[in-house]
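[Discussion] Sanity-checking designs against the backbone

I'm trying to build intuition for which residues belong where. Below is a structure token string of 84 positions. I'd appreciate it if someone posts a full sequence so I can compare it with mine line by line.
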């Protein structure tokens, strides 16, 4: 059986501005929850003045390990769309 999936091969960043708000989009290749935690710690230091740091990740092609976090935004309005 051949399994095909898309993944991130290198860190990427983008910035979206709307009215007075800035949204930073960050993507990192990860293979473990420990890597995710380390990256989140660094992101929180870098963007210490951010109101919300929402995130999502998938660790296996079968999507058996995943998480989406709204970080204080209304339920399912940030983390779930990021996961999608």
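Best answer:
Here's mine. Compare freely.
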């Amino acid at each position: 059986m051949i399994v095909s999936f898309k993944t991130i091969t290198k860190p990427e960043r983008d910035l979206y501005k709307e009215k007075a708000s800035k949204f930073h989009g960050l993507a990192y290749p990860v293979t473990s929850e420990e890597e995710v935690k380390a990256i989140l710690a660094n992101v929180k230091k870098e963007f210490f003045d951010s109101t919300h740091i929402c995130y999502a990740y998938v660790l296996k092609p079968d999507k058996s390990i995943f998480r989406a976090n709204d970080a204080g935004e209304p339920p399912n309005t940030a983390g779930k769309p990021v996961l999608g």
